[in-house]
Design goal:
Elements lengths: L13 H21 L6 H8 L3 H7 L3 H22 L7 H18 L1 H13 L5 H19 L6 H22 L5 H12 L4
Length: 195
């Protein structure tokens, strides 16, 4: 486990994991200040105090790095949600509250949100493992909010639709085509699929 309580990848030593954490934190800081374009590999390496070659060994491209940054942000959110679970009488209410909490977190750093979402959009098959990790983490967050450890195939299908709706809502909000009220309505509508 790392200091934040998250499981370190099994192939990394404690020192390598600390280096990886510095890289992800530097990426998030730079993206938070200037969005996707502000994340330049050389600047990330300098901010994380690692050699540029070392950075490329961990993350072969900016898209890999920003998708991993999104996974890291979701890991942090998941830890927070476990400490302070969402309120709601039904699974649909708890999932909607969870996703709106995630959305509010991203609202506080719209440049970072934009950079991470752009990376997901730009990701090709070479980044599929990282994108899949983000999807698994999002699914785990939703299932925890539902209170489901062993979801049925129908529940997993509903979770996929909810996840797609959440990602789409982020994109439309970031592009200025949806208000926060519209995002909430879309998320709440999708969450009704759980029932």
């Amino acid at each position: 486990m790392t200091a934040e309580g998250r499981q370190a990848p099994p192939h990394l030593t404690a020192r390598q994991e600390a280096r990886r954490r510095r890289i992800l934190q530097a990426s998030a800081r730079l993206a938070g200040r200037g969005g996707f374009d502000a994340v330049q590999m050389r600047e990330v390496a300098e901010a994380a105090e690692v050699a540029l070659g070392t950075l490329y060994r961990y993350f072969p491209s900016k898209v890999h790095l920003l998708v991993a940054t999104m996974q890291d942000q979701l890991d942090g959110l998941h830890s927070t949600l476990r400490r302070r679970p969402p309120a709601g009488d039904t699974a649909a209410e708890r999932v909607a509250e969870t996703l709106m909490r995630a959305f509010r977190s991203l609202q506080r750093e719209p440049q970072l949100a934009d950079a991470m979402v752009r990376a997901l959009i730009f990701a090709d098959r070479g980044v599929s493992a990282e994108v899949e990790a983000v999807s698994r983490q999002t699914t785990a967050i939703i299932l925890d909010a539902m209170g489901q450890e062993r979801p049925t195939p129908e529940q997993l299908a509903a979770v996929r639709v909810i996840e797609h709706t959440w990602h789409s809502a982020l994109i439309t909000w970031l592009s200025g085509r949806a208000s926060i009220a519209q995002v909430r309505t879309d998320i709440e509508t999708a969450c009704r699929l759980i029932a």
